[in-house]
């Protein structure tokens, strides 16, 4: 990929970037649904999450959830200007209501907003509708992560990725991993993927998107780089791509869906398979 070959440093996400597939999301939904008491709720929960992933729900990948009010916000991912707000059922709020509650754009607040940037977010967002606490869902998440590196799970390997990363490393590119996963999870997954020695720096528990910009700036300073020399690669536009583009970095966004936003510094791909 030309944009990677021209870079001095490349910052990779982990989940959904260095491995693909959706079996882990299916497991996450299944195990979370089993925490519900009633069979009817289990089925409704699973269907609602699946509707979000399939774009058949007011919430979808690329929207923002107001956790307190349970409103769903459609925002410009570069400027965070609010374009539309609906309640959970899809009823749209008036412009006056939106301005009264939020103003014209959202401000980062980890306690108020969840950015629905990839498949890990919907199971958590919907669980709250069914009364499951964040602690319960976090426990399920850890169970899924542990299962993914066990002998009972086949981790989906992206074809050509390992060879491509080593090619980039041999070409003197600085390869960095920046992920929200904790260090123990990261090291287990990298070992399972055979990528343990590929990266010069692991930035774990990165608190994306709320600290993405700060993290990127620290990496630029640490390696004495200017933004134009660095590429961020990931499957979550809020977490990895928009903050990079705002700093003048380049971005490679991995998505299976049509993506409406254009930028001279943005490359959109469906997979990294055999591309690097």
From TrEMBL:
This is HAD family hydrolase. Its EC number is 3.1.3.-. InterPro entries: HAD-like_hydrolase_sf, HAD-like_sf, HAD_sf. Pfam families: Hydrolase (PF00702). It comes from Terrilactibacillus laevilacticus. GO terms for molecular function: hydrolase activity. The lineage of its organism: Bacteria, Bacillati, Bacillota, Bacilli, Bacillales. Keywords: Hydrolase, Magnesium. The keyword Hydrolase applies.
């Amino acid at each position: 990929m030309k944009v990677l070959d021209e870079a001095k440093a490349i910052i990779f996400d982990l989940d959904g970037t260095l491995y693909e597939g959706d079996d882990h999301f299916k497991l996450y939904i299944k195990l979370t649904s089993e925490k519900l008491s009633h069979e009817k709720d289990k089925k409704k929960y699973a269907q609602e999450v699946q509707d979000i992933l399939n774009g058949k729900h007011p919430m979808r990948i690329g929207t923002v959830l107001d956790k307190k009010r349970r409103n769903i916000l459609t925002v410009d991912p570069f400027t965070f200007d609010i374009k539309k707000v609906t309640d959970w059922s899809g009823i749209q709020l008036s412009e006056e209501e939106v301005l009264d509650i939020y103003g014209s754009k959202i401000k980062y607040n980890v306690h108020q907003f969840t950015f629905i940037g990839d498949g890990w977010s919907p199971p958590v967002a919907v669980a709250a509708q069914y009364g499951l606490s964040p602690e319960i869902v976090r426990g399920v998440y850890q169970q899924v992560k542990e299962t993914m590196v066990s002998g009972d799970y086949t981790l989906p390997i992206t074809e050509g990725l390992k060879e491509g990363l080593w090619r980039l490393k041999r070409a003197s590119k600085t390869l960095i991993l920046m992920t929200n996963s904790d260090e123990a999870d990261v090291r287990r997954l990298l070992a399972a993927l055979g990528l343990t020695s590929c990266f010069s720096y692991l930035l774990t528990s990165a608190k994306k998107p709320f600290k993405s910009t700060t993290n990127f700036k620290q990496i630029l300073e640490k390696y004495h780089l200017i933004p134009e020399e660095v590429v961020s690669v990931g499957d979550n536009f809020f977490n990895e791509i928009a903050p990079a583009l705002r700093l003048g970095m380049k971005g490679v966004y991995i998505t299976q869906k049509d993506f409406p936003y254009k930028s001279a510094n943005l490359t959109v791909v469906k997979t990294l398979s055999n591309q690097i």
